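Narrative of accomplishments. A recurring question from our advisory board has been how the design workflow behaves on a single, concrete structure rather than in aggregate. To address it, we present the structure tokens for one chain from the evaluation set, followed by the sequence designed for it. No filtering or post-editing was applied between the two.
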């Protein structure tokens, strides 16, 4: 398998040149502020590493206040050194406040790198708003009882009228009533009705009904 030929990347070359110039400006400013020897070379490394660490945190975990804060601090330090060494500042007579800032930079950069490395990522708004309720997940919502149609009342059957209580009728009275009924049938050719039977016998209506029932 043939190895791919090396290609010259214009963007990479531009990044190397810009990084080298920024590195030199930071070194010159640190040396002018009293940081001599290897310490002057460590300052540009510290600034650029903090800038890269904050950018990687933004790319990996998304926007966060912590990453943006340290990215801007490192960017201001880098741009400030580039601008200061462009002839606007006399490197032979550096102000005291700038010497103080340069001397305090290692502690500031150490704190920023530690926070970027060990602080948890901020939850995104989508994760904060869409986090499920643990109680809702662990306990299923009780299903609403299904409403059944109300049973239709069945039509009530008409009540059968109660039969009148049996009335004791003497046998002699029944025999007499039968004779009266036979006489009526012989004279009229029709069966005797209850009212006529009651009139002929001279009994109350309920007794006449009981006698008529026994004659049928």
């Amino acid at each position: 398998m043939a190895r791919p030929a090396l290609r010259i990347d214009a963007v990479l070359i531009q990044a190397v040149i810009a990084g080298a110039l920024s590195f030199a400006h930071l070194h010159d400013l640190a040396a002018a502020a009293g940081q001599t020897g290897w310490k002057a070379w460590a300052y540009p490394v510290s600034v650029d590493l903090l800038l890269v660490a904050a950018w990687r945190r933004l790319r990996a975990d998304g926007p966060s206040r912590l990453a943006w804060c340290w990215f801007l601090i490192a960017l201001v330090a880098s741009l400030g050194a580039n601008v200061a060494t462009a002839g606007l500042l006399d490197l032979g007579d550096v102000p005291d406040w700038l010497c103080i800032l340069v001397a305090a930079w290692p502690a500031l950069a150490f704190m920023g790198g530690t926070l970027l490395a060990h602080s948890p990522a901020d939850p995104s708004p989508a994760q904060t708003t869409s986090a499920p309720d643990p109680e809702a997940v662990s306990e299923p919502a009780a299903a609403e009882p299904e409403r059944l149609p109300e049973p239709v009342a069945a039509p009530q059957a008409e009540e059968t009228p109660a039969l009148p209580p049996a009335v004791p009728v003497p046998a002699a009275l029944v025999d007499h009533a039968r004779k009266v009924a036979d006489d009526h049938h012989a004279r009229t050719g029709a069966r005797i009705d209850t009212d006529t039977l009651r009139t002929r016998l001279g009994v109350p209506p309920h007794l006449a009904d009981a006698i008529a029932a026994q004659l049928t």
